[in-house]
């Protein structure tokens, strides 16, 4: 895993999806994440429409670990099945992210793109 670098997220042409879109960029060969797992990840998140980065664990210089059930729905549904060592892209429409516009979060109403590296599962 030490050879991984912060991913570049290519701008996605076309309309934002209405459903969660899961794309494996690299398939890992380690333990598999399950719906109730705690996961350790590195990730980058960008706005689908503008391509602007809004969050990145890479920029903070450290991965994060958390239980899946505490995360946005797109991560809860998009990370299980992923194996440690893998890199996956999730395109999360508002219903799978921070809800409709006006929902009180700065990213409410936005379709979000994440590239997630799964580092560990417990």
Q: Globular, elongated, flat, extended or rod-shaped: what is the shape?
A: globular
Low-confidence residue ranges: none
The rounded distance between the terminal residues' Cα atoms is: 17 Å
CATH class group: Alpha Beta
Strand content: 25-35%
CATH fold title: Chitinase A, domain 3
Number of strands: 6
Residues in helices, as a percent range: under 10%
The sequence of SSEs as H and E is EEEHEHEE
Structural class: mainly beta
CATH architecture assignment? Roll
Q: How big is the Rg?
A: 14 Å
Largest sheet data:
6 strands, antiparallel
Mean pLDDT: 94
Integer count of domains: 1
What is the helix tally?
A: 2
InterPro entries: PPIase_dom_sf (IPR046357), PPIase_FKBP_dom (IPR001179)
Protein name: Peptidyl-prolyl cis-trans isomerase
Keywords: Isomerase, Rotamase
Family: Belongs to the FKBP-type PPIase family.
Plain-language structure description:
Belongs to the FKBP-type PPIase family. GO terms for molecular function: peptidyl-prolyl cis-trans isomerase activity. InterPro entries: PPIase_dom_sf, PPIase_FKBP_dom. The chain is mainly beta. The chain has a single domain, classed as Roll (Chitinase A, domain 3). Helix content is 8%, strand content 33%. It is built from two helices and six strands. It has helices spanning 57-60, 73-78, and strands spanning 21-26, 38-47, 53-56, 64-67, 87-92, 112-121. Strands 1, 2, 3, 4, 5 and 6 form a six-stranded antiparallel sheet that branches. A hairpin with a 5-residue loop joins β2 and β3. It starts with 20 loop residues before the first strand and ends with a strand. The model has no long low-confidence stretch (mean pLDDT 94).
